């Protein structure tokens, strides 16, 4: 076994790998960008090495700096985690050339399976069924020959980045261009392939483990059908769809796929499976790394996959063959991401001001967070994973819903509350899943309506912030006592339909009372008691959170007046402007694409709300923007004509 291992990653996966290294008595080396100097993975490692500035290209994606960090720290091996350079064959080869063991498969296997086109050809030759499709340079022709719907996929990467489902071939060229941009941004390679889309498919993957002595086994399957925008959000093991015969057949196909590329270490073979015919499964791709969802396999097999990655890389043999693998119980994982469901799941950001993550009694949280963590737009939006285990699926789901309700991440909007509601959906409870289920039911699980008790709690928190503190002088006009020269006044908080008068918040029906502590606010409304977590100007419960902000009607009216007759286009999320297609004075049509904002590897197109003229343009490619920052102003044609008259 190694003495020292460098973890070439950040966030929750770095913390996860460091945990196993510690349990094995292996010294861990963390690497960090300037933005992560005080991150949890750095504090939990035995030592840390600075890579460079915050952009990933100058830190976590810099092969030169990572190898230098390995040399300076005395590391013998490198664990790449997932994301960044985990599936980069050149990095794996560079590690070996530098005298470092790459904890993963050989670089040739990474290169082969990383090229989705060659991968399909290779596994097909090994007898594994594949999805019909085509490739560059005849991509558009192949798509039209297949007929809609088709799925565009980057050849060089996975994780849903750059994938586009095209149901209308009249927009094929535009979708291809967008997929190429995102693929180039995410993987440095814009080569695409196209596949026939299977309606209402299930996404099932097989975990494989191979050593350097010719032994390859599979560790059962994971159901990954609950997805948004081709991104997995909930995974479980085993799948309720498969019987023992199908499980064995798919497992053997995965083993053959691994053998076909000379695989070594932990890897995952992904299949698309028609829900009405599980025996008809198709190879999609092989991920030559540890998967985000590996904990559910660990819980049902009792194996530590990171430990076996290390042992295999150190030259050890697998302890048993396929007959020794046993699946016991059921496990479900939910991914906590920095995104705001009420704003269309756009990426969010901020500082974590209160954190509580459930552990124990069949619940595990893998996280890279700590209080004070700054969540920005530079890296992936996934913050943590909550995993629950039970003797059966019903128990695991129930425990996971409870764990998500007990998860507190104030200061950053997350999807925890949405995931809790998704796991209670009747189709999910029954196991009737497919990759389109979430999109079909999302409107039932997301609401922009704020419960009345949240208004009461927000007013109580806002009022507490206005109270005069002991010591020092207090401006009498800022005290929410209700006194004004012209009569009783009131404070309007957060734009909510309530008034805060005197020292007690009340709605227009005077039905609420409250109590506050340093970390909670309790509201009793119509005889029902509601308890919220609180920190700074945030409140939360059951995985949901709300920020309490001042509402200044004068400032709001001035803003509206400044842009009277025009429409301001604002940034829907904190991020970076990557594409600007117009200039001041340009005429635009309704729905025309004007700019592209990218955050956390996700693109958002800003379109014209109506026909008009670009009156203001405050950004250019490379500009970093905050959420709700004005990007451009479009003057409607009718407004311009009115001014002319």
Automatic annotation (TrEMBL):
Alphabetic keyword roster: ATP-binding, Biotin, Ligase, Nucleotide-binding
UniProt-recorded name of the protein: Biotin-dependent 3-methylcrotonyl-coenzyme A carboxylase alpha1 subunit
Quaternary structure and partners: The biotin-dependent acyl-CoA carboxylase complex is composed of AccA1, which contains the biotin carboxylase (BC) and biotin carboxyl carrier protein (BCCP) domains, and AccD1, which contains the carboxyl transferase (CT) domain. The AccA1/AccD1 complex forms a dodecamer.
Molecular function terms, GO-annotated: ATP binding; biotin carboxylase activity; metal ion binding
Upper classification of the organism: Bacteria, Bacillati, Actinomycetota, Actinomycetes, Kitasatosporales
Pfam families listed in its UniProt record: Biotin_carb_C, Biotin_carb_N, Biotin_lipoyl, BT_MCC_alpha, CPSase_L_D2
Enzyme class, UniProt record, top EC level: ligase
Enzyme Commission code: 6.3.4.14
Record domain Biotin carboxylation: where: 1-443
Species of origin: Streptomyces griseorubiginosus
Pathway assigned to this chain's UniProt record: Amino-acid degradation; L-leucine degradation
